[in-house]
Amino acid sequence: MPVSKQNLITALIILVGISMLAWSVQPQTGLSDLHWYSILPPLVAVIFAIATQHLLLSLFAGVISGALLINVPAASLQAASWMQSLETFLGLLWSVISDPFNLSVLTFIILMLVMISVVILAGGLQAIVRWLGKFARGPRSTQFVTTLMGFAVFIDDYANVMIVGTSMRPVSDAMRISREKLAFLVDATSAPVAGIALMSTWIAYEVGIFAEVSNSLGFERDAYSMFLDALGFRFYCFFMLLFILINVWTGRDFGSMLRAEQRSRAGQLLAEDAVPPGNLGDAVKTDSKARIRASAALLPFAVLFIVLFIGLWVDGGGMALLAQSFGNFFSAGNWRDVVSASENNVQVLNIAGLLSLLTALVCAMLIAGLSFRRLLPALRKGAGAALYPWLILILAWTLGGICEQIQTGPFLVAVVGESMPAFIYPVVVFLLSAAAALATGTSWGTMAIFIPITSQLAFQLDGGTYGLITIMCLAAVLDGAIFGDHCSPISDTTIMSSIATSCDHIHHVKTQFPYASVVGLTAIGLGYLPAVSGMPFWQSLILAGLLFLGFLRLFGRKVD
What we know:
- This protein is mainly alpha-helical.
- The chain has helices spanning 5-24, 40-52, 55-71, 79-98, 100-122, 124-132, 139-152, 157-174, 179-188, 191-196, 201-217, 223-231, 235-250, 255-265, 280-283, 295-315, 318-324, 332-341, 345-366, 372-384, 387-405, 408-414, 425-440, 443-461, 468-487, 492-501, 505-532, 537-555, and strands at 252-253, 557-558.
- It has a domain at 1-98.
């Protein structure tokens, strides 16, 4: 697609303007290792991805500029520093590709895409579509079913995105819901649900960071209790879920999402310039000789869920509890503890994905009556569909590693200083966490960087006690990271949402950004600021619901 000169000039103006602002607020004393240009690599990637619509090239530009900034500024006239930048780029790329966690995520993507392609070929997904059609009889009910599925798959955000996105896409297409709206519903219910669920793979990570902070600052508060304390201030997550329900109930959309929905209702699911990643729906069709049975899809999905839950139970030490009493298996508290203690959740996901793929192959042969030879095209196309999202994720992770080296996150924190009024501090922490997550594309990385840094100042503002500002600060980092993650085109969860729904990734980001911004601003105005003054959570929730209703009625329109 040709790049608009106007968009390119606008991107350059924004880049120069933000760079000058960063230069003007460069931290001074004691922070010589923090530099204003640490924001440039993510800024280049984000701005030019939106302006040019070429995500891979923009990510690559961000990575290259970051590799240069690591070495060149200190010795810009020496050829050796430029060569060292090339070595830095290759080294970071190799570290990303060889990282066990990253490899596990890439493996999970290809396992799921291949499994889904087999399910499509065997007609299992077509049968589920027919069944869901009984409940999803129009665009609004279809979106409501999608939202409920997003609430139900709370155990992990990756599993949530892949399962809900792939299973609901055919139903959504049949109801002429835009891929952008489907991607929003999938993305906006994944991290918020997993982030606040009392039992999910996110809890172990969040609680682990809280434990380090509690030990270093002497809170005398156990980490899980800190998580529960912060839960009442997770305004963005709760407000986002409330916004989705009101948005679906009213059937009103606004801005670029409204235009996408109007286009889709007219019969065009994707924009003319859309480049959907991993579009299995177009690549794989149901085999004409397949016996259409829902069990050909339900059994693989059931295996995925069952193995995932059992794997997390075993990995989190649940077998020791089971040895004490069989009844421990049915305790919600025990499930919360073992899932929080699981340290290999992505590996468990891979085992579950592999077994679900094998189950899909067996079901395709025994239930759908297809030979293995007829399944080979599905295997090939499913694996091929993983290439583009792999490249996106690898570049996004590499950019995240560069941001860590040049300390993008600490720079954003440092420019705020320590003269911040206590009542405004949670809002600043929320915005800084969002900016860092948007820039780096990682909510977990943002949490790891910001919670130890910001909690120290919050502890001081609370007079050296574990008080309201400290608790709100912890919640603000968690929620700000998810908010920024929703707005970032280099976020892995946002990328996977585009993959699962076969939505053009840039279009997904552009349509989701206004919705996330409305919720984020509401979290500030009706959440963090009133909460400092003592407003209870339930009042904030009611006011936010009324605001969303009024906003959608005033600025939104129904799509026939």
